[in-house]
Design goal:
- The complex is a heterodimer of chains A (79) and B (223).
- Chain A is an alpha+beta fold and 79 residues long.
- Chain A contains 2 helices and 3 strands, in the order βαβαβ.
- The longest helix of chain A is centred in the C-terminal third of the chain and has 16 residues.
- Chain A starts with a strand and ends with a strand.
- The chains are: A alpha+beta (79), B alpha/beta (223).
């Protein structure tokens, strides 16, 4: 099953990459007051149903794909 | 006295670490990332570099490699482990030292000597007293050490902070440059003590930490 994991910097954590992009956007005149940079992982998970796929992806996301000290994640199972 | 130095794909300071170990009078032993067997070494160095291309997060994939099973067991037995630069990142990702290393606040790769203030007396810093200064080179892009305020307060109270940058080069919380685990047998820092062991290339202050590693492994200082 196709599962997407989104990993984002936690709120309040300095994100120098997002901040650098924000400064460049401001330089181009875009009205983007804030930018936070994260990562997207598209997983193909071997599971019987959506719940099973979510459980596996949740564990992978929490243990490997994100570092809980600085990142939060969100799991989306394709319908 | 045998000191294991882990080689990962993408490690680049393993040879310098082995050279430094030999200069200190111990026998360097190369450990391979895919082998969990540490070959009975007395101490372990996780060296600098860009293990697994720094993919995912620096140190994250190396922390999952087979050799870390051996390193975890070695650390759990109270034996000494020193993480340097990428090795610091590996040890944080493995949960063996606290915190995490993030991109430098400046987003610049910084490569220069840094002055480090000794925070406290420690077996890792033989002959040093609080307030002493060590000059050791650093070279990294992801050396901004971070932990939340509660964690930092706990580490400070327990005496797990060994060195601070005199001038913060990377945005590390509290200018913290070197931390240990709660038990004190695992230490890690971003600057490179193994690059500061011969007067020919500048400082020999790196010998202090390497001697600390050997002392903790139970071998007396060379005469």
């Amino acid at each position: 099953m196709k599962v997407t994991v989104l990993v984002r910097p936690r709120d309040g954590i300095l994100d120098p990459q997002g901040e650098a992009v924000r400064r460049s956007l401001a330089g181009l005149g875009y009205p983007a007051a804030g930018v936070r940079a994260g990562k997207v992982f598209d997983l193909d998970v071997d599971a019987d149903d959506a719940e099973g796929a979510r459980r596996i992806a949740d564990e992978i996301a929490g243990k490997v794909l994100s570092n809980p000290l600085i990142e939060q994640y969100q799991v989306e199972v394709a319908g | 006295m045998r000191v294991g130095v882990v080689s990962y794909p993408g490690a680049c300071d393993d040879r310098d670490a082995m050279h430094a170990v030999a200069l200190m009078g111990a026998e360097p032993v190369r450990l391979w990332h895919a082998d969990p067997d540490l070959d009975g070494v007395d101490a372990v160095i996780i060296p600098g570099g860009f293990s697994y291309g720094d993919y995912l997060r620096p140190g994250a994939l190396a922390a999952l490699s087979p050799v870390m099973r051996g390193v975890r067991a070695h650390a759990a037995a109270g034996r000494p482990v020193l993480g340097i630069c990428n090795g610091f990142q590996v040890l944080t990702e493995a949960g063996l030292v606290p915190g995490v290393l993030r991109p430098n606040a400046s987003l610049k790769f910084r490569c220069h000597d840094v002055a480090l203030a000794v925070e406290r007396e420690s077996p890792w810093l033989p002959g040093c007293s609080e307030g002493d200064e060590l000059t050791i080179p650093m070279k990294h892009h992801d050396g901004c050490w971070f932990a939340d305020a509660a964690q930092v307060a706990e580490l400070e109270a327990r005496g797990q902070v060994l060195l601070r940058y005199r001038e913060n080069p990377n945005g590390s919380v509290g200018s913290i440059a070197c931390v240990t685990n709660a038990e004190g047998n695992v230490a890690a820092l971003m600057p490179h003590p193994e690059h500061a062991v011969e007067q020919l290339v500048g400082s020999t202050d790196g010998r202090v930490l390497l001697q600390g590693l050997l002392d903790l492994a139970g071998v007396p200082a060379p005469a």
